[in-house]
Amino acid sequence: MRLPNKLFSFEESTLANLPVVLGPLESGPMAVLDLFRSVEATLGGPDEFLDTMMCLYALGAVEITDERQVIAHVGPTMV
């Protein structure tokens, strides 16, 4: 996970990707692969997607279910 510092601006950090990934989830749950494909052009690649998802999960902003591999927006977040 890249955080803003002297080397990376906010726009280059993982934090800037949080609203990009949360946006498509506002319309409802999505499969992980569908979500990745919808934001793939904006993010740098799968590694940035995974960093962003781990950050959102740690913040309690998303929930990942095992049975259907569906990601659901959990509600209002502090992001």
Detailed description of the structure:
The chain has 79 residues and is α+β, with helices and mostly antiparallel strands. It has one domain (10-73): Orthogonal Bundle (Arc Repressor Mutant, subunit A), CATH 1.10.10. Helices cover 38% and strands 11% of the residues. It has helices at residues 18-25, 32-39, 46-59; strands spanning 30-31, 62-64, 70-73. The chain has a 3-stranded antiparallel β-sheet. β2 and β3 form a beta hairpin. α1 (18-25) packs across α2. 13% of the residues are buried. The mean pLDDT is 85. InterPro entries: ABC-3C_MC7.
Brief overview, please?
With 79 residues, the chain is of the alpha+beta class. It has helices spanning 18-25, 32-39, 46-59, and strands spanning 30-31, 62-64, 70-73.
Question: Which features does this protein show?
Answer:
Arc Repressor Mutant, subunit A, 3 strands, ABC-3C_MC7, globular, about 80 residues, three-stranded antiparallel beta sheet, alpha+beta
**Percentage of β-strand residues:** 5-15%
CATH architecture group name? Orthogonal Bundle
Order of helices and strands: HEHHEE
Q: Estimate the helix proportion, in percent.
A: 25-40%
Radius of gyration: 12 Å
Largest sheet: 3 strands, antiparallel
Q: Which structural class best describes the helix and strand composition?
A: alpha+beta
Indicate the mean pLDDT.
85
Top CATH class: Mainly Alpha
Q: What is the tally of beta strands?
A: 3
Strand order of the largest sheet: 1-3-2
As for the CATH topology, it is Arc Repressor Mutant, subunit A
| DSSP helical segment count | 3
Shape: globular
Domain module count: 1
Query: Regions with pLDDT < 50 over 5+ consecutive residues?
Result: none
Give the terminus-to-terminus CA distance: 16 Å
